[in-house]
Amino acid sequence: MDLLEAAHPWIAIATTIGVFLTIQFVRRVPVDLLFLLALCFVTLTGVIDPKTAVAGFSSRAVIAISALLVVSAGLRKTGVLDWIGSKILGRATNERSALLRLTGPIVLSAAFVLNTALVAMMMPVIIDWCRQRNLSPSKLLLPLSYLTILGGVCTLIGTSTTLVVNEKLRDSVTEVEREIFQLEAKIATAQPDAKPALKGVLAQRQMILSKVQPMGFFEISYIGVPCALVGSLYMLLIGQRFLPGRRDIIEQLGDQKREYLIEMQVLPECPLINRTVEDAGLRNLHGLFLIEIDRDGDIITPVTPRDFIRSGDRLVFTGLVSTIVDLEKIPGLIPAADRTYEFHPQSRVQRHLTEVVLSPSSPLVGTTVRKANFRQLYNAAVVAVHRNGERLPNKIGNIILEVGDTLLLQTRSDFVTQHRNNRDFYLVSSVDNAEPRRHDRALLSGGLMIGLIVWLCLTSLLVTFGISGGWASPAIAATTVASLMILTRCLSPTEARSALDIQVIVTIAAALGLGNALWESGAAQMIAEALVRLVGTQPYMLLIVIYLMTVLFTETITNTAVAAILLPVAVAVAEQSGANPRPFIIAIAIGASMAFLTPIGYQTNLMVMGPGGYTPRDYLKSGIPLAILMAITAITLIPKIWTF
């Protein structure tokens, strides 16, 4: 049994290395399953107990991320994310210009808002923007994670790592104060010949006490802001080139087979009114072409980017089904082919988009769209029409339907089930990602989002000043706002459950458990002590080793665990070498936050891994130069700002 316990650190290290190698070279194994198997292995071999193994599934980080995914779904459902994306990304036409517009707002926001909240809210915005323009989200999602990491070190509340460091410093202050009190008591009762030695120890402890005080709100900004500037410039100029440009080719080909004709009417409340076609973003949607504008019988064709949109205009497009879905999400823009189309938010939320192909036995064949009476026959409304190999007239309502025509319909959710075997149709299928927006709840969900951001900022401040409790918990804040999203009908309970990305949640929870195995087994402490023994007492070399050691462990363990493990070691090393511990403390706070090399190094890296289609190699290719730049910046500036 003793022999097995002695092998626990090596088992933890070998398992972690095995996970990385398997992810890299065996693509068919799901990442979440791999981490679960690794967690089970270290538990079955006794490296950690079952309680520690499953602790990650109840961790505050996992709960907060889960709740934030629900909040993000509520913002998406009500159209708030569409609005945010249009404001931030603006007229960006490619990945490079999009990254340029994202960098400033993301870095600035990450300095004051929880990183996971930013990534959870911005991921769907970026994915939708990329899909509309046939661009690769893998060019933007990892930069999104990196930018939030860079912004997080600009203030004390930007990332959980600095808060953990501050909490450990507060514990250190309490411990040193206790030692000073005990020394003062000993000096008072000690023999005269023993007092000088005790006073020397007391002076040393008082010096340590002055150097391990908790950080100020902007103290880390002196190094965090330069790191953020250097890192942002790298991502803008070089970093994006190392990222893959993956697209789902099969989905693209499938979309291109169905090019619909659709006529949209501009209602008085539409936000596109009095904007040019280009400013409205109608020139940049992939797979969509604006054929003409019908303005009270006056036909504007061809349409130029400088033409204005007016209330009551009828806009005629040809486009892919996915782009038509995007058009439907714009408030005040509704299909005009069928007058029975439901456009009130409360009514639309009960309806979905469905595709049908007309068969020879359909009673609709030979009638026009306007006279077909879809509402009476099928409780549905026509949105758009597609006909292979033939150019359709621009007035959809006057199209005479033929066998084989594909219709895009607005139907009830049970339409597919009811009509799957209906002889009127060759094919009946629902359209993915076509949920209608609850624009009537946009202000409410936006207000809840602002409330959450304010709460998270206050939460960080409360923790900074040592105040604990429910109000000071990001997990409770996110869970409360997520519950309010459901309660106020910004999204339904079913939609909230669907928003939970089980793969992301399980991967993060299992990765936390694997990090606990490295910590509990003593593997991390064993490696740290061995590295420190090799260096000696030269302060600058110790700083380099501690920073690099912190970065190395952060890539394999959770960042907060690394900070908790290495901070006492750093203070002890500084005390033994007679150096100021402050540079080492700052090095750990920065190094434990700068995780760019692996998906498990930081929670946001894991969150973008699946949606971006990344492999560990992608993190290394883009992250190694960034990590080197951050190391050079930090190691150069820290001793100049906080002297040894």
Textual characterization of the structure:
The longest helix is centred in the first third of the chain and has 30 residues, at 160-189. The chain contains 26 helices and 9 strands. Among the domains are: 258-335, Alpha-Beta Plaits, CATH 3.30.70.1450; 352-430, Alpha-Beta Plaits (2-Layer Sandwich), CATH 3.30.70. It is an alpha+beta fold. The chain starts with a helix and ends with a helix. Mean pLDDT is 78; it is low at 248-256. It is elongated. Strands 1, 2, 3, 4, 5, 6, 7, 8 and 9 form a 9-stranded antiparallel β-sheet that branches. It has helices spanning 2-25, 31-44, 50-53, 60-77, 80-89, 95-110, 115-132, 141-152, 160-189, 195-211, 221-237, 249-256, 321-328, 345-348, 374-378, 415-419, 442-464, 474-487, 493-499, 502-520, 523-535, 539-554, 559-577, 582-591, 603-612, 616-641, and strands spanning 259-266, 288-295, 298-300, 314-320, 333-335, 351-358, 381-386, 406-412, 425-430.
Summary?
Helices cover 57% and strands 9% of the residues. With 644 residues, it is of the alpha+beta class. Among the domains are: 78 residues, Regulator of K+ conductance, C-terminal domain (Alpha-Beta Plaits, 2-Layer Sandwich), CATH 3.30.70; 79 residues, Alpha-Beta Plaits.
Name the average pLDDT: 78
Helical stretch tally: 26
CATH superfamily of the domain at 352-430: Regulator of K+ conductance, C-terminal domain
CATH level 1 name of the domain at 352-430 = Alpha Beta
Biggest beta-sheet profile: 9 strands, antiparallel
Q: Work out the number of β strands.
A: 9
Low-confidence stretches: 248-256
Give helix % range.
Answer: 55-70%
Class by alpha and beta content:
alpha+beta
Instruction: Work out the strand percent.
Output: 5-15%
Instruction: Report Rg.
Output: 30 Å
CATH fold name of the domain at 352-430: Alpha-Beta Plaits
Note the gap between the termini: 45 Å
Q: CATH architecture of the domain at 352-430, please?
A: 2-Layer Sandwich
Q: Which of globular, elongated, flat, extended, rod-shaped describes the shape? A: elongated
Domain RCK C-terminal: 248-333, 338-425
InterPro entries: Cit_transptr-like_dom, DASS-Related_Transporters, Na/sul_symport_CS, RCK_C, RCK_C_sf
GO molecular function: monoatomic cation transmembrane transporter activity
Main location: membrane
